[in-house]
Amino acid sequence: MKILITADWHLGKKLHMEDFGQDMALFLDWLLRYIGENEIDYLLVAGDIFDQNNPSNEATKQYYDFLVQLPGKGCKAIITAGNHDSPSYLDTPSSLLNSLGTTVVGRFPGMDQVEKILIPVANRSGKTEAIVAAIPFLQDRFIRQVGESEGIKEIDIKIREGMRKVFKGIGDEMKKRFPDQLHIGMAHLHAQGTKASEAEREIQIGNELGIPSDALDQFNYLGLGHIHTGQPVLEGKIHYASSPISLGFSENVYKHKIIQLDIDGNSFKQTFIPVPRFRSLYQVKGTMQEVEEKLALLKCKYDLPALLDLSIDEPTFDPKLMPRIEALKNEMSAKNLKVVSQRVIFRDKSISRKLGTLAHERVNDLQPAAVFEKIIEGREENEEKSALKDLFNTILADATQQQP
Ligand SMILES: [Mn+2]
Questions:
Q1: Strand, helix or coil at 232?
Q2: CA of 392 to the centre of ligand 1 (A)
Q3: Cα(335) to centroid of ligand 1, in Å?
Q4: Residue 153: enclosing H or E segment and its boundaries?
Q5: Distance 50 CA to ligand 1 centre (A)
Q6: Are both 323 and 397 inside the same structural domain?
């Protein structure tokens, strides 16, 4: 029996107003072809199906149009909600989707009904070959009881212990009910020690904690969603599936893939299937001249236009720069390279401040202390100002120390 594991589709995702709908259409076409040609029996999608909990009609249509084609390929699907998904939005059509052979677990039913998420998966001749624990993103209330006046450290400990308990409970129930079967888990969470891309830090990791791998080690194999770059948590046993396409500029160099498990009796083989690339995302930085030189060498390598993020850094103000950038953008679009984001920094602050919007900086490019400095920069230099600065630095030191 063959199972594919993928995650983090983020249907409906936009990058600077640029829609990834075409990218996902190309991916889903490729996936369907792969499923058909390789006789895949089950497709597991481990959360963040949609980018938003109230997805657009287009994104929803793309989802159903894909699912309706699976039975024709002899494939069934198991879908769980991620932190971006609305559990009830996914669950609402579940009886309709069931008739197509698709099982959806949007909402976690709670530990007293954990058997509901244990799904026997059968091969084409009807023999059950494995049990899938379909674990959606777990809301706080399933993990811990919220106490009053808890510090960050206490909450951290409670979340880790809560997750350990939930995973152990699910694992134990599986072993009790299906002692002789292969156990496969799918979940959407942040495991300890994983590296997140810049786009992920911005859109989805938040302040969540990493869950230690030994707490998750309850199955023969666990496929994870949430971190977009596929990486092992426990080699050969717990692995992130990765998003199928680059969703942010920092993910451009990453080779996206899906996980295939070939199951034979009680053993299985894990293979990574590379997903073809449909678009490039480029970040180009430097002085205007450097940026122009770099752009001259860039080519659009795929059918979809490459998306560009320009960051121009000039020592002094140059009034001719803006028309030059506009001309450059037109030139680029003729080469199928589309500038979707640009910022210009003039190092000579006295001029750039007067220019206001022309010379803007992004908060992301600044250190916290520099941002605070800006907030209080109009104030008179006095005792109060230096006390404020000291206080801020104390809080900052405290906050950075507390990070996992
Ligand atoms: Mn996520």
A1: strand
A2: 32
A3: 34
A4: helix 152-177
A5: 10
A6: no
Separation of alpha carbons 135 and 105, rounded Å: 7
> Which is more confident, 86 or 370?
86
188 Cα to the center of ligand 1, angstroms: 7
Query: Cα 384 to the chain's mean position, in Å?
Result: 43
Expressed in angstroms and rounded, the spacing between residue 290 Cα and the centre of ligand 1 is 36
What are the tokens at 79? 């879908």
Whole-model pTM: value is 0.82
Cross-strand bridge partners of residue 187: 224
Shared domain check, 134 and 54? yes
213: left (phi > 0), else alpha (psi -120 to 50), else beta?
A: alpha
Q: Which residues surround ligand 1, an ion (CB under 5 A)?
A: 48, 82-83, 204, 226
Q: 183 - beta bridge partners?
A: 131
One domain, residues 298 and 188: no
Q: In angstroms, what is the span from residue 248 Cα to ligand 1's centroid?
A: 14
Q: Where a domain ends, among 245, 274, 303?
A: 274
What integer pLDDT is reported at residue 404 of this predicted model? 37
Q: Each residue of 308-326: pLDDT tens digit?
A: 999 999 888 888 888 888 9
Alpha carbon of 315 to ligand 1 centroid (Å): 40
